[in-house]
Amino acid sequence: MAQSTTVKETGITTDTVPDVELKKVFKIFGSGAVVQGVDLQIQKGELFSILGPSGCGKTTLLRLIAGFEEPSAGEVLIQGQTMTYVPAYRRPVNTVFQSYALFGHMSIFDNVAFGLKVRGLPKAEINDRVKDALRKVRLEVMGDRFPRQLSGGQQQRVALARALVNRPKVVLLDEPLGALDLKLRKEMQVELSNLQYDLGITFVMVTHDQEEALSISSRIAVMNQGQLEQVGTPSQVYNYPTTPFVAGFVGETNLFECKLVEQDGAFLELRSNSGLAIVVEKPSDWQLSKEAWVSVRPEKIKLSTEHPNQPYNTYRGVLNNVFYLGDHSQYIVDLLASENVPPVRVTLVRQNTLGDKVPPFDSQVYISWTPEDCLALAKPMPQPSLDLL
């Protein structure tokens, strides 16, 4: 019997053989490597997101899993079986595209049944499987309609039904909600998460939307310039980023480029290039580095009109602007760290309550945060050039 383990914070029971595994995968187009040495394991039953900016290689990575592209080097495995030279139509995966790619002249039933008809399955089996797939996405009464008669969210569910009807081991989703408006996208996030949980099928989703990835993923791989910067649960990636890129890309943060002044027990004393003295709780895996970045999330920063009498990380500044965002407001504060240096601009957020008094613009304010509420990130070493030939 195969051993199994539980992925921390997700509640997912995973077999020792991952549903998807990439081993030192490279993909070269022309003279450049779009995917550079990616190692990744995606476990059974995960809703796994590959998150990154445009051009980082995330869609290419999905296409390598799907079989639409072949790796220049490395290996792709699905449920322990190598997919080298296995064409896309023979892989146990199905892809849902952002454009949905529905046939406008076909009914919803025929759209979902199309792949089964191409495979030559018996008519009775096709009928049963299509009805079951439409039931799973709650469209069982719309089989005789056409795509133009459905909303964007309903068309997205048809695309999911068409993928599920083939009973794949893994469903691949390429920016599946990108074509929807904000309100509908949030509704579909809930539906997608619930559907994946009910089915227990592994979903691998590519997205550039940080909020989307954080809200519905069991784990996230953050990708940048063809490489994976960090893989972890949403909580790990947001609260404990391992690189300055992850800290800045996933959510909002204030980043300070610093030099180490002193290492004192459980704390690091640093000075930013703009002159701010910053005290940070020393990370458990900290290795002595003379240079570092300090990340402070906006929600960790306190704002007051009087000095908070806190010994560390307290600064005087001028309120530059306030943006009212409904349940919270975003404050922009300019700090004058030292003479002959431009002001340091810091962003913070506060929840709005009735009776809040907002200081006037250009008034003096104080901001502060504790050493435990900021994070020191060692500067990454430059990546060596890759000789792949």
TrEMBL record:
CDD domains: ABC_PotA_N. One of its GO terms (cellular component) is ATP-binding cassette (ABC) transporter complex. Coiled coil: none annotated. Residues 20-250 form the ABC transporter domain. Pfam families: ABC_tran, TOBE_2. It is a peripheral membrane protein. It catalyses: ATP + H2O + polyamine-[polyamine-binding protein]Side 1 = ADP + phosphate + polyamineSide 2 + [polyamine-binding protein]Side 1. Its EC number is 7.6.2.11. It is found in: Cell inner membrane. It comes from the Bacteria. The keyword Secreted does not apply. InterPro entries: AAA+_ATPase (IPR003593), ABC_SmlMolc_Importer (IPR050093), ABC_transporter-like_ATP-bd (IPR003439), ABC_transporter-like_CS (IPR017871), Mo/tungstate-bd_C_term_dom (IPR008995), P-loop_NTPase (IPR027417), PotA-like (IPR005893), PotA_ATP-bd (IPR017879). The keyword Transport applies. One of its GO terms (molecular function) is ATP binding. Keywords: ATP-binding, Cell membrane, Membrane, Nucleotide-binding, Translocase, Transport. Part of the ABC transporter complex PotABCD involved in spermidine/putrescine import. Responsible for energy coupling to the transport system. PANTHER family: SPERMIDINE/PUTRESCINE IMPORT ATP-BINDING PROTEIN POTA, SPERMIDINE_PUTRESCINE IMPORT ATP-BINDING PROTEIN POTA. Belongs to the ABC transporter superfamily. Spermidine/putrescine importer (TC 3.A.1.11.1) family. The complex is composed of two ATP-binding proteins (PotA), two transmembrane proteins (PotB and PotC) and a solute-binding protein (PotD). This is Spermidine/putrescine import ATP-binding protein PotA. It comes from Tumidithrix elongata BACA0141.
